């Protein structure tokens, strides 16, 4: 077994050479053990690249597993809460999965790759759980995170940029669809997926062709056609909250890592009723979730808009000004496009009902002088931000 | 002749902790120590000029931060530095490196098994559940489950409450955990031999059980429930060796007006009218006090320094049956330089932590088999550290001190221990290390080899058992040391116990000493000077 260099703490992505050059801030963090840029240049510019032109993000560190074998679909359908038996080849779907107690272990996406089986993408490490879940099934589970390089190309001009880079047939690719194509002689898979709530694609290649892919996309910028910029994790965090996507580990504690009883969450408590299907046969956590369904909901993660402009980071929530404490903010962003404080908040329900009023107590400082204030909040059932171009097919050509 | 408020017998860390909290409450306290130096098994001695050893205990994690804070030990010279690194060397020349960087550690586990790298997340979280449950009871007196006293009932209720705060499935798992062997427990998570061996080491240290013996899973918990600055499961080096711990407590005790007499061995606890009244020293000197606290293990306390006529037959019988088997040895080695390890690259950070040479459960079990046959392990499990890589106070510059804890080494070796056999035991360990370090033997300048015989003779631990009694379920919580005697009160009035033979057991924790002080002060109607658990909700 090959030993590794202990001085190389974080792994380098196959795109690292380019990222290192463009990452002017050298603002690195670890994402799944990979050296990942938080900010390349300035956060505001990266945010608006996603919302106004074309952003590129290295998503190689995302955990990826290849599921193949005769029982692959049976296995996956028993693993996740959603019915995926009708997922067609060339399609992608969002899923969550639970332990036997119906508490959420992680979320992710399943790609039906046709004859090549399925790809499961997850936020956290899942190999152990997948192996446990596959007992008795004729299925093969391969960890392929390091074997696939991937770029997320997102923004209103994402289609135009990829078309200019040489990708054809993208015009008919619908949201959650997969296109297998080629670029300069190497295989590329493109899915119309993303974490931004905007028009966007995820582009998957063999790591050997990673730099060719990167260069083909950025060459569009060099030709003076469209702006294309790399973005880091911080800009992604902003747009994912705008788009209403939850982040396991940030917005809720995943079941596998929960030590204190009651700190994990069920799909219902995360507002994910729509991905739980009791119509399909057995799946892990089904019995516990059926039981939970008959009882009034105790708490739920909500999309919460907080009035004013003071940042409600980590704020406690109350059922009135100076009222009873009913929850806390888990993640938040000042949305530059909506000029609002958007948050994900964990709220205790009263007799199965959302509290009538929700107030945030916010501590903030100006020039190191701390103050506190109250801000009224309102729950949003829909994503805070969703643009029709996200699903428009064919997308606008710029 | 002076009468003291309290006499504490034995200047180990628990005796000193107990004495310090009594002194803090305004009591006039005397600590008596048989050796010419203090510390008991928490001791650093210079046996070779220029080198200081941590002669017995060698790393620190369990010591309660609440006690550290309450006795102001930082200002009295104690510093505990977190340990990083560590490795289990394999027979095939490879190793498992327990890198301190989580990302590197994860990749390293994955190098041996991809699945184990992910299983480690589940394992860590599960172990933390049990740690969290038990940590809350370290600084509390075990309730008597048969008592109807209000305090016992409330304490027992809080024990049950903590238990029932676990989810249904966790309750099942917890009960299983307490009764399982470490091998079976770990095999529910891991598949790689070397990972299994590496993680199981902590559950046999100091224990007369093998990795396949039921009950060993708990011993792992006992080694994982400590923390360094909130990092539960982490271990630290006391700067200057473990003697720094007892020195700092002693300094705090003296600052509170306490008195320590070394070279003063207690022969007997005087009892008159079913009350302890004082002690008689080996010199014949008698010293009286209102309270007598024994920091000796339960066997020594009741069978050696108390008159059986003063004790209920039940206590004598329980003391005779108390399970306190010697199973560990220790080598302390002065080195002329830093040894190389064949498997490691130059400059590897792995040498900074605990190093082991047992790469499979089978080898660990065979090591135990030898012990059962009254032999020292021919292929022992060792826990090797070289703290002088960053502690400048324990050896001359450029030289090193190596501490090698060895499991298993019997108290009753075949034919009885002789100096020659002790040295042969040392050679077994040295050869094992030399197999992985070609220049090791040439660097040795001085060795202290300790079998259970030496540990018993010098420190006073019966049979050389490092925990002052096995950490098995029958000797834990309200059964430690004996049923009915778990609340630190002895069988005669004014006599108390504060040693690791009492709850929560062995390891340099200080908790028995503090818990015992709390009960004494309660009986005296004095203000409680002992700290409460910091809490973890």
Characteristic key phrases:
heterodimer, A: 398 residues, alpha+beta, 8 helices, 18% helix, globular, B: alpha/beta, FAD/NAD(P)-binding domain, four-stranded antiparallel sheet, 35% helix, 18% strand
Description:
Chain A has 8 helices and 19 strands. Chain A is an alpha+beta fold and 398 residues long. Among the domains of chain A are: 140 residues, 2-Layer Sandwich (Gyrase A, domain 2), CATH 3.30.1360.120; 88 residues, Elongation Factor Tu (Ef-tu), domain 3. Chain A has a 6-stranded mixed sheet. The longest helix of chain A has 13 residues. Chain A is globular. The mean pLDDT of chain A is 97. Among the domains of chain B are: 183 residues, FAD/NAD(P)-binding domain (3-Layer(bba) Sandwich), CATH 3.50.50.60; 114 residues, no CATH class. In chain B, helix 1 links the parallel strand 1 and strand 2. In chain B, helix 1 packs parallel to helix 10, helix 1 packs parallel to helix 17 and helix 11 packs across helix 12. The chains are: A alpha+beta (398), B alpha/beta (537). At the A-B interface, helix 4 of A face helix 3 and helix 4 of B.
